[in-house]
Design goal:
- The structure is a single chain.
- The protein has ten helices and seven strands.
- The protein is of the alpha/beta class and 241 residues long.
- The longest helix is centred in the first third of the chain and has 13 residues, at 33-45.
Amino acid sequence: MEQTVSRRRLGFSLLSVTFLLCLTSGAFGSIDPDNLKAIIDYIREYGIANNHYAVAVRLDNRYCRSPTRRNLETALPRNQMDQMRSAISKKNGIYNPQQIGDVVAARPNFQRDPIEHAEWRLLTGDQNSPVERILANKDQNSCLIFFSQLSPCVNQCLNENVMRNIVRVVNPLFNRYNEDGRAFVFESIYRKDAVKEHEVVLGAWQRIQRAPLFRCYAGNRACIKCFNSNQPVSNSPCLAN
């Protein structure tokens, strides 16, 4: 994650969403992948090319259950999404407006040492974190999506021995929702993790398994769930390119 452009360069399809999605309790047992795909694709329209970023979105249940174009534009108006894109188009940019709505976003902050990763910037701050602000006084049966363009990195984001890991924040946050009301999504595998042993990467990913973790590829490919209860811990469909 040290070099934003280098994380993208090896050509792994994008999307680490860093997202969380909520649907009505018990409807599917987990999030419907087709609904998740529609929401992620809409968010990605307002993303930025060749740079890592993360986005968190809260939606009402009716928009999670039926993420049509019209519903998404109602829930996440284009002018708001344009403002988000403008903010994260700037180096070290963050979208955390004073008048909070239902979406926040960030790029890594390279001015800090060590670098503040995009995921961490949205999750840090306890009750004043950008993510907590979009959830404040909102119905917890609503939909929460955390989207990170690249998979959360093994050495920092998922390393519980590092102060700025996201595991200690993400797990309590997701545990407030039913499994069919949450999702952490990524599109591309962070290039430095792509060359690590599969067991190392999967072991780190499983620290946020309860999210649950999804990979949503760019283009027409479907969103897939990275872990299932009957699946060996040494394998995951999300490792495939």
